[in-house]
Amino acid sequence: MGNIIPAADKKNINRTYLMNDTVCCEVLEVIPDTDKLVCGMKGTTLPAGSEYASRLGLIHSDDFPQAYKYVCYQIFFTQLLQHLCLTIHHC
Q: Which of 5, 32, 54, 81 has the fewest CB atoms within 10 Å, counting from its CB?
């Protein structure tokens, strides 16, 4: 456990990682035969001095990339419209 980046929450207080935590990590290896990814949080494959190294570890949904938030919002909005449409047609 000594090689793990500490899980610092939004208030920058270190804690242990918990089930269902969201972490930002780098892909170290792709194993297509077994559909597995080997990931790490040490920044070993990032360029020296990369700004992304400081983002590895525990993250909050507020820290997700804007493109990810946009896609999730679009999916949610589409599902909501479909639900409303089904509800209206069944009335």
A: 32
